[in-house]
């Protein structure tokens, strides 16, 4: 689904978050934490353990990552809605280019 948005390094992950307008919903430190966490999850292959993320997240301790995910002041529904909108846009664009209908 994200063929045109393959995340190959942190710069493209940053661009992806900018496309989703996450910078409108998160502070700069929160965005940096999220980038580091997502990069570690992508590199390691996330299996649900925060300690796995902490191994690869630069300069982040396991407890800092847990605190960020559970106690940060952010509205996750805004982020989820932004991601859903982007996915729908990508599906719609692919349907227009291929001239094939979308089945739900």
Describe the structure in brief.
This is Transposase. The protein is an all-alpha fold and 104 residues long.
Any chance you could write out the topology, listing elements then pairs?
Blueprint: H1 10-19, H2 22-25, H3 28-44, H4 50-56, H5 62-71, H6 76-98
Cα-atom radius of gyration = 16 Å
Largest sheet: none
Quaternary structure annotation: single chain
What is the SS-derived class? Answer: mainly alpha
Order of helices and strands: HHHHHH
> What portion of residues belong to β-strands?
under 5%
Shape: elongated
Average pLDDT works out at 77
Helices, by number, come to 6
Structurally, the number of domains stands at 1
Give the fraction of residues assigned to helices. 55-70%
Q: Let me know the number of strands.
A: 0
Protein name: Transposase
How would you characterize this protein structure?
- This protein has helices at residues 10-19, 22-25, 28-44, 50-56, 62-71, 76-98.
- The protein has 6 helices and no strands.
- It starts with 9 loop residues before the first helix and ends in a 6-residue tail after the last helix.
- By secondary structure, it is an all-alpha fold.
- The protein is elongated and about 50 Å long.
- The chain has one domain.
- The model is unreliable at 1-5 (pLDDT under 50).
Keywords for this structure?
6 helices; 104 residues; elongated; Transposase; mainly alpha
């Amino acid at each position: 689904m994200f063929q045109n948005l393959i995340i190959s390094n942190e710069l493209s992950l940053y661009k992806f978050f900018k496309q989703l307008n996450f910078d409108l919903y998160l502070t700069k430190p929160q965005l940096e934490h999220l980038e580091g966490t997502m990069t570690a999850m992508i590199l390691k292959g996330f299996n649900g353990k925060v300690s796995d993320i902490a191994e690869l997240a630069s300069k982040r301790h396991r407890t800092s990552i847990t605190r960020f995910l559970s106690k940060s002041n952010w509205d996750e529904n805004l982020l989820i809605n932004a991601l859903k909108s982007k996915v729908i846009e990508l599906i719609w664009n692919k349907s227009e280019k291929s001239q094939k209908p979308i089945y739900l």
